[in-house]
Design goal:
With 94 residues, this protein is α+β, with helices and mostly antiparallel strands. Helix content is 23%, strand content 34%. The radius of gyration is 23 Å and the shape is elongated.
Length: 94
């Protein structure tokens, strides 16, 4: 009877830890935030809070993507022109 209780307890703990892990598993689907800025639509693609791509759709013209050039913040390049860096200078700070 003691062995059965121990096996039952071990099984219960294993199932409980698996369900807790399944709730914290990273999502494969990106979170997409859509906003309007002037005459263009901006879609931000995030996975687990990490911004990895931005799609910009101007009112006139062809949509384009900005993707991370490296792991740093604010350093994006256009996917159709990978050698062109998008400047992210800070001129003034109050």
């Amino acid at each position: 009877m003691r062995i059965l209780n121990r096996l039952l307890l071990a099984g219960l703990l294993a199932v409980t830890s698996l369900t807790a892990y399944a709730d914290d598993a990273p999502s494969a689907e990106p979170d997409i935030t859509i906003r309007q800025e002037g005459d263009r639509t901006i879609q931000e693609y995030r996975v687990n809070g990490f911004l990895y791509a931005i799609k910009i759709t101007p009112k006139t013209g062809k949509p384009y993507f900005l993707v991370r050039a490296d792991g740093s913040d604010g350093n994006f390049v256009r996917s159709d022109y990978p050698d062109m860096l998008i400047p992210s200078w800070e001129i003034f700070k109050w």
